[in-house]
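FAQ
Q: What does a multi-component entry look like?
A: The components come first, one per line:
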Amino acid sequence: MNFDDIIGTAAGIFTTIGVLPQIIKALKTQEVKDISPYMFIILCIGVGLWTVYGFIKSDWPIILTNGISFILNGIMLSILIMQKRKIK
Amino acid sequence: MNFDDIIGTAAGIFTTIGVLPQIIKALKTQEVKDISPYMFIILCIGVGLWTVYGFIKSDWPIILTNGISFILNGIMLSILIMQKRKIK
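Then the predicted structure of the entire assembly, as tokens:
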């Protein structure tokens, strides 16, 4: 692993775990009304496309981190949808 | 602009504009208590590092989109900090 891979992996770790505090907060408080679901819909599409980009470039830091990011953003989106249903 | 640049740019546009609906919602409602500030702190560090990664690889879609993403996440973080001060 060379220097650019280390920076790429560190970058990917931060952007990937970024959603975790929001997931934990939402699960703890069960309050999500201030959060925009559109943000997580758009982010899912975006990191999904980054994963494709990583495959085209055979760039593993991009593939791995955005793949996991896609799953985590998907979890957050699911929480938002489930909470919205509960309110109804 | 070839195919991988197009995918990279599309990916970057989505992950960049993803924060916008949240910024608009926060400015409209002035309610941010359900949003985790840690999410945006970590995302700022992450996209900042992605920008560095882009410079190392001379990869313009990565530099541009993550650079703008850094600014937008920074704006969202500022809103959160200002709202927190208002509550106090």
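Q: Is there any commentary attached?
A: Sometimes. For this entry: The mean pLDDT of chain A is 92.
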